[in-house]
Each structure stands twice: as C-alpha cells, then as structure tokens.
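Hi U.,

Before I forget, here's the chain from the pilot set. I'm dumping it here mostly so it's searchable later in email.
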Amino acid sequence: FLHKNILIFRRFFNSANRLLYIIMLALPLVFWACDNDDVDGPSGSGLSIVFPQGNNDYDREFVSFKEQYGSMVLYKFSNAQFRWAVNEYIPYYGTEAKEADIAKAWGLVKSGISVWPEDFVKKCLPYQILLCDSVYSLWDNNAGTGKDKKLRNSCCGFNHIAFAFANDRINPQDVETKREAVGDVAYAMISYAISKNIITIPERFDTLFTKWKVNYPTYTTNGEIPSGAWGYNGAAAMDGSVEAKSGYTLAHDFASYVKYIVTCSPATFEERYLNDTFDCGGTKYDTDWNLIPEHRIRQKYEAVLDYFRDELGIDLSTIGTQTEQMR
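Structure:
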C-alpha cells in the first residue's frame, strides 16, 4: 500500500514539474507579446494595432510621445476599433485622417495637451489618441425620416480620445481655432479620466447637477427664456448643443465646464456666461413676484475651479488666461 502511494506521488510530482517547465518556457513569449505594439492592444477590439503607422516625421514624433506619455497616436483605424467598448459600441463615429492634414492636427492636439501639468497628462491620457477627419454622432431628424450627422470636434471612447482636426476645414493658424482646440482636448481628456475613475466628480458639483437637471424654468428675470437659459443651465447653455439638451449626463456636464473654463480668462468667462441675462435660471421670487436668478452656472463654475485647485493642485483660471493670450 505504501509503495503504491509513493508511485502515485512520483507520477503527480513529475507531471507538476513538466507543467511548471512548460509555463516557464511560455512566460517570455507572453511578456514579449505584451510589449509589442504590433499586437492586440488593451482596447481589446480583436484587431491588430500597428504602431507607428508610417515613416513620416510626425510618426517619429508619435514614437517619442508614446515613450514619454504611454499613448499611441493613430490616424489609421477601423470602425470597430473606434466604436468598440467591450460589450457595446460608443455612440460616436470617426473617419480616418487625411494624411496631408495629420501634422497640423497633431499640432493642435499637442498645443491642447501642453497647457496641463505633465504628471496630470500622464495620469489622464488613454492608450490611444486618434486623429480623425471627422467625428460625429447620429440623431433622429425632426422629420422622423432618418438620422442626421451631428459633427463634434472631439470625443472619448473606451480606451481612446479622438479629435476631428485632420481635415482641410480647419485653419491651424486661426487664433480662435487654437483656443477651441485647447477646450476640445480638455473635454476629451477629462471625459476619459472620469470614465476610468482617474478623477472623481466632486459631490458639490454632482449635487448641483442633480438638483437642477429636471428643473426647467418657466420664466426668467426679463420675462422670457433666452437661448442660454434652458433647463438647469448646464454647460450646454454655453454652446447650445442639441446633444447636450438630450441625454445630458453628469460627466458630460463636468467635462464641458472644464472645456469652457480653460479657453478664456476669468474676466471673459464672467462677461460671457455669468451675467444675469445668461445665468438667469431660477425658481425663487421676491415679494413682488419677480424671479430671483439662482446663478446656477456660477455655482457650478466655482465648484469646478475649487475642485481642481484644492484636490488636484491645478489652477484652471491660469490655464484659461494663458489660452486667451494665444496668438
């Protein structure tokens, strides 16, 4: 009986040793594959990612950028790679960049990234940055006959951020274009960071968003509802976005506030958005039944500024001032 048990143990031990040996042989191959850019990336779309995608000067710059920040800049991609999100597709579409416009598109993205502290960028950038000719979503048209394209400058995917800068419609020398690009980069990067719990939307902002999301004003201080006064005065009031008025989310609202804050100085932001005509939503009245504005945009604006300054050590007002001074 004892002899039989010893034989069984030896067979088990030898089998375990062989299995361990096989695993040890396979490990180097596993690590090699994980470090090779010409394999499936963590986006998990099931399609190979070839990087770099060319041999141009900007391709060599993309390699250096990846070494510094860990993000691959791509301009060739499939619809599946753009829209994949594990068990669903993101509600956005992207078309590949025109190669003649890649350098200028990268210049705008790089400028938008440069306004942020390097450590923050390294923490918030995704695995991929996609340069596109166009980025858009599809919305049912008013006639009910189909869907219309709603163009966007940027968006956030499952493991990428994308920018519609690589086309002949954009003039990178235009000052307003440069400033808007800073906001678009901020929106996409902050949206991605929120989606991965890299940064957390402060409870103060969340409370304001929830309180006013379904609270639509009937009147405003001048007895009318101007275009900027719809709903709860989320950041959509600043751009009049159709998408923002339909299916608006907490993350979109927060990232949009960051977008607008970093594109102009505090004085300009005040003049544009914090006056009683624009920031006019409310439900409170004085004794003569005149509506008292609750300054909802101002309250959210201050919540965003305080969070970045106190929790992340970043002064968004300073970034906005620097952006406004771009020439």
